[in-house]
Structure formats: C-alpha cells, structure tokens
Design goal:
By secondary structure, this protein is mainly beta. The protein contains no helices and 7 strands.
Length: 110
C-alpha cells in the first residue's frame, strides 16, 4: 500500500559563475513557496518535507538552514509535477532537481 508521503527535493546549481535567486517551488500547480536564498554554482538546496530547507556548499558541508514556514503537500499515489523558477545570472546556469520518494523502483521514460 502506498502511504501519502512528504516531498524530498534536492536542487543543485551548475554553470560558470552561476547564481539563482528569487527561487520558487511549485507542486502540482497549486502549492507554491518562495525560497529566500541565493544559490551559487555548486551549491545544493535540500527540502526534506519540513518547514525548512538546508543549503550545502559544493563539498556537501552545511552552510545554513533556510526557514520557509510551510511544509510541502503530502504526495498521494499518482502523477505529480514539481516546478522550480528563479532569476539566473552568470554563464549557462542550470538547476538540476532530484525528487526522492519511498517505494518500489519505477522506470521513468525520458
């Protein structure tokens, strides 16, 4: 049985001298939260389903805890969408996102 579970999201910024600020995360087109942090090249932002995100440097060392004041919605069985928006600067900035959930491994078409 699939129990509802929190979203676990990791965002990683790549690109020469890249920065991303004014980040927003949107889940299933109804839940939106602003993230008050500037992400720099090599840094990662992890949201474990709590009311805060953790910012890590390129070596995986914790830089700061970012209070966002809201938990993401619990994910039910079925399809979901996760969107990220930001204002970018620097050369070729790209945010790579990873979503983790508990359950059986399922192949995703590319």
């Amino acid at each position: 049985a699939f129990e509802p579970q929190p979203l676990h999201l990791r965002l990683h910024l790549t690109g020469e001298d890249a920065t991303a600020k004014d980040l927003t995360v949107e889940v299933d087109r109804f839940f939106r939260v602003a993230v008050p942090v500037t992400l720099k090249k090599g840094q990662s932002l992890v949201w474990d389903g709590s009311e805060r995100m953790v910012l890590y440097d390129e070596k995986g060392l914790k830089l700061e805890t970012v209070e966002i004041g809201r938990r993401p919605p619990l994910l039910q069985r079925g399809k979901h969408s996760v969107g990220v928006d930001a204002r970018f600067a620097g050369g070729d900035p790209v945010i790579k996102g990873t979503v983790k959930i508990k359950g059986a491994v399922e192949a995703i078409a590319r």
